[in-house]
Amino acid sequence: MNTDHVTTPFGPATTAEETVEGVDLSAKKAIVTGASSGIGVETARALAKAGADVTLAVRDTAQGEKVAADIVASTGNARVHVAFLDLSARDSIDAFVASWRGPLDILVDNAGIMATPERRTAEGWELQFATNHLGHFALTVGLHDALAAAGHARVVVVSSVGHVNGDILWDDINFERHPYDEWKAYSQSKTANILFAVEAARRWADDGITVNALNPGRIWSTGLSRHMSAPPAAFEPESSDGVTVKNITQGAATSTLLAASPLVEGVTGQYFEDCQPAAPHTPGLRRGFAAYAVNPDAAARLWQVSVDMIGNARR
Asked: E-assigned strands of the chain?
């Protein structure tokens, strides 16, 4: 993963709005999944403040409407919409894709679940892999033509430093034979996010679509951590294991950088953290990208596995 040519003036304390300051997105259409809470809200807000037409793709549409109203009030941009999307249900994904009209400039695959008790979809798929990876895979592939029609479209995939905990469990992705481990399930879904970005970037380069993944940092004040014990009352700016602790607006910054900043125009197939290209993972630190998460052969393998699982991906 060559990142030598990419530099930005931003860092771990940068906010989402700072990454798009001065950027005009008034001619752009964007979708942010999971934009009813957490960093999804602040990602959508920053894009709307820069002028984009933003669709909040959410499971809880009532909460989504409240968020949309707040974003409209805070940005003055009335082009903020809400659409139902359940990434664990294929019929919901298909309906969302079928309802989309026209080109799509920005897709932020932001929604996610973490460390859930053992749960399965109607197909019997492990829920974290199905939601975090397969759902976004089906959505993004389904919207490929809209992205290609936009010209210079960007796909942003929110992964996690948790991917360094483990590779894909290739022989038992759905934990049908292995005892279920919520963290192994989470880590493989986050590894899958990065592998998806690597392979989609390769496949879609000629379509003018860039695809990048990112680690948003450790943000405790979101619903993602609801299955975990309560965090400490206060944090140092930098935790001892190397993970940068952030507030929600800082946590959304790398997403908005990749979604809209001219500084990363044309950058594709990479993994960012703290608004910079990540370095290879160093054992003992929870930073950087694991080698298995950017392996092109593994990325191609996961693409085929995903096609086989969801059945009708066209690309």
From this structure: 29-33, 53-58, 80-84, 106-109, 154-158, 210-215, 271-273, 276-277
